Amino acid sequence: MAQIDSLLAPVSAKDRFALIELLIDAVDGGAAVGFVPPLTEGEAGAFWDKAIADLGHRTVLVARDEVGRILGAVQLIPSLWPSQLHRAEIAKLLVHNAHRRHGLGRALMLAAEVQAKRLGRTLITLDARRGDPVVDLYGSLGFVEVGIVPRYARNGQGVLEDNVVFYKELG
């Protein structure tokens, strides 16, 4: 079983490269995470560099195998707005294609909930492309569907697809 831990700065070159590969694998596999294929190593690296630079604010949780390779990741981004200090957003749940359907996404999400509670957050929000398998995962974890935003983002073929918005109140 994979171990879940927080990514800490400074991030090693090996971990940075693994995160780049993870993002490229997800995008090439059709994941709706804001990018369209083909995603270059430079684009993926720029994304992770920004996320890593923000580790003082956001939490990046990673799932590692027994030898420490990164197999998946998720981000928890607490709101900074004074009226929303009880809330955090989940972003970029990624699991390497070769390791999907083994519980890593669920484990990462549960770890993100624990971290949100640790930070005093009582509400988590997230969104996903309508029809993606991850929509079922979120429902099974107790996330409530708020609604659908039509024609929200383009897929790799340039087709506009709907997006589903979710929330979960933490006890």
Explain what this protein looks like in three dimensions.
- Helix 1 packs across helix 2.
- The chain is globular.
- By secondary structure, it is of the alpha+beta class.
- Helix content is 30%, strand content 33%.
Helix and strand run: EHHEEEHEHEE
Strand order of the largest sheet: 1-2-3-4-5-7-6
Low-confidence stretches: none
Question: Alpha-carbon distance between the termini?
Answer: 27 Å
Q: How much helical structure, as a percent, in the residues?
A: 25-40%
* Binned strand content: 25-35%
Rg over CA atoms = 15 Å
Query: How many DSSP H or I helices?
Result: 4
Which superfamily, in CATH terms, is the homologous superfamily of the domain at 3-121? Gcn5-related N-acetyltransferase (GNAT)
Structural class: alpha+beta
Instruction: Give the class-level CATH name of the domain at 3-121.
Output: Alpha Beta
**What does the main sheet amount to?**
7 strands, mixed
Q: Within the CATH hierarchy, at the fold level, what is the topology of the domain at 3-121?
A: Aminopeptidase
Number of strands: 7
Mean pLDDT across the residues is: 97
User: Per the principal axes of the C-alpha atoms, what is the gross shape?
Assistant: globular
Indicate the CATH architecture of the domain at 3-121.
Answer: 3-Layer(aba) Sandwich
